[in-house]
Design brief:
This protein is an alpha+beta fold. The chain contains 22 helices and 20 strands. The strands form 6 sheets. It has a 5-stranded antiparallel β-sheet, with no helix packed on it. The protein has a 5-stranded antiparallel β-sheet with strand order 9-4-16-18-19. The protein has a 3-stranded antiparallel β-sheet with strand order 7-11-12, with no helix packed on it. Helix 7 runs antiparallel to helix 8 and helix 19 runs antiparallel to helix 20. The longest helix is centred in the last third of the chain and has 35 residues. The two termini are 42 Å apart.
Length: 796
Amino acid sequence: MLDAVEGVGIPAALAVATFLAATPWLRAFAIPGTTALLVVAAAASVSIPALAIRVWRQPPPVSYAASALGLLVLLFAAAGLHPDAVWHGLTRGPNQLLTETLPLSGGRARLAAPLLLTWLGGTASTELVTRSRRVAVGLAAVGLAIPLGCFVIAYAVAASRPGRDEIAAPLLLITLVLIAVARHLVGVAVTPQADMGRSIDADARPSTWRPGLAGGAIAVAIAVVLAVAVPALPVMSRRPASLNRAPPLTTAVVVDPVDALASLRDGNPHSPASTVLQVVTDQPSNGYLGLAVLDDYDGAVWSFDTTFQPTGGRIPAGPASGLVGVTTVRQQTTVAAPLPVSFLPALDRAVGVSGVQVAADAATGMLVPSSPLSAGASYGVVSRAPAATLATVPAADGIDAAAGPADVALPPNTSTAMATAMRTLATFTGRRPAPTVAFLQALLTALHADERRIDPALTPATSPAPPQKKGKPGRSSPTTVTPTVAASQPGSTSLSEAINAVTNVRVGTPEQFATLFALAARYLGVPARLVTGFRLGTSSAAGPVGAGRYQVTNRQAWAWVEIPVAGLGWVVADPTPDAVTGLLKPPPESVQVSPTTLPPPQANAVPRAGRAGGHAVAKPAAIRVPKSHPVPWWVKALVAVAGLGVLAALLGPGLAAGRRWRRRRARRRPDPSELAVGAWLELLDGLQQGGMPAGAGATTAEVATEAGRHFGPDVTGLVREVGAVADQAVCSVAAPPDEVAAQEAWAAQQAVRQAVLRSLDRRQRARALLAVGSAPRQPSAPPAPDRRRWRRIRSG
């Protein structure tokens, strides 16, 4: 019992303590797979050194080398085998944790620093605690204190993230106390001798377990009292003093939903699309599931300012009540992966929610769950939604101008840039700009026909070239222009970048197309707001999306615009084209030609001074995004060596194990006599696997005597027992062995095989993994008149 506690219980408890010490990181990141990666880091960082110490009996350098190899595998698995991503996660990740608003979203490479700290803590703690037979007790105590230090670091870094975690710290303390008590019980602690300056090996068990048990009980009681009493103290329970009034939001998590959805779509462009939602609808709809509705734009970032009111499942109807042309659509949504923002995707406009408690905004219909939804969660939404989009409504319909002032506001210092952009957009459409549905539909048609969308999944070698424009009256000169796609952040909504991408480069992201279209509508006096979420369809083609089941992937994270149409309410306008292109390399300077009709948009589209009550926004900076992630030679070599190792395991021990399993299965016959003979054949193979081949003419008694000389006297009796049952099956026609005797023979031969393997050293065990045995593969029923052939099988 004590050996099991020492060999399995203590390492398992150390793995639990390592994970508990890493739990504050879960509040600092909103990245899918964070929990799984931390669990793997905690378990593997403890298991590898524990196996190296207890099973393989390796010195510390070998244990640390194996642990370092496991850490590299985990980091590359988290970052998608991109060394640059791992390096950036280790060097820039801590700075992002300390300077950016938590929780952080994006790719899993951002988890490199927390995974490294968790792994180092688990490995060091296991080494100090497990190797404490020959070292002082103080080092073992340091090993138990390492998880506490890792917890303090993680808690301090994640302290700016709103939320409370009152369970991890007491559980961590209790786990460490239990580990200390277990070490005391199994006798691995060492008592230093001050007078001799050396340690006494504590292989002998302690004389009593009562002091350790009493100390553990006292520590657990103290932890429970602190967990209950400390939060109840007035100093600890009251709200901290603050000079700023907290915004009236259900949750205080500050996340840019536009950037979060763009990062979800393009975070790892070279990986296949992953399912995020599973949606079932019962009626045709426009196919756009909105997450966040944003109406405030400062020239760089879209935001909103609203109050979410708790609901009992029924959502206030809002301005959608009384409209015509809308249908009731029921959606059943299953979350396949955690969402990067704390909103529920649903068709506009939701009037009822089931399966989850939500708070809602009466003005926009946005939904916020009371707690973040985990993978596998399911909820239902009933929406009153128009099936038509702006591209399909009658052109004679009018704009509903009854909207708030925020829906028509333009950022300051942007009038010149917007006037230039509107002239270019009017040239695209061939129409005079007007605040009408007809002009906005013409603008949608022009963008869909002539522009392209950036798809980072396309590499420069395979990406189609952007359309080359030839001169048309009023648009450009006959000179052929090869546009260069600027590498920018996926969710960049800076007005200067959006104008340059759509009107000059003619290639952009969904966020940039939606930003410029919304600002163009506002410039004409048409209310417009930007919405981010998911679209069920794979294109912006006109027409409703039919009822059915849809698998929504991360590549369907989208941004679009909503325009109020009289009689229909807010209608979806998706200006992003379906044609795609990749990130292209800039052409040589000699062939770079700027359009002759329009000057490049100036950076004054971004406000130079902060708005009232806000802050200044810096000019956008071009960010170099790597176009590819070449795998270095040493990674390829490492993968090749690992592949050869797996192949060797399959061709060597794996193939031998498969052959032994087939022989064992063929020898387990339903007939008791055949089953007894099969047990003897299996025993002969087991002895030969251990290095003792039986002679061709040896009897069962001779085999038993020889096995005793090779593997010890305990094996002799078991071999004789199996041989006696096999002799009875072969030689006795009147009284063959029954089922019970045959089963006991099989149990005895299994005991012989285990005793043989225990008596072997490591090299002999390695050779045994490759051995199969030369005994006949399967027994056959002996005819009564001919028994000499059966005796040959028995002796062979």
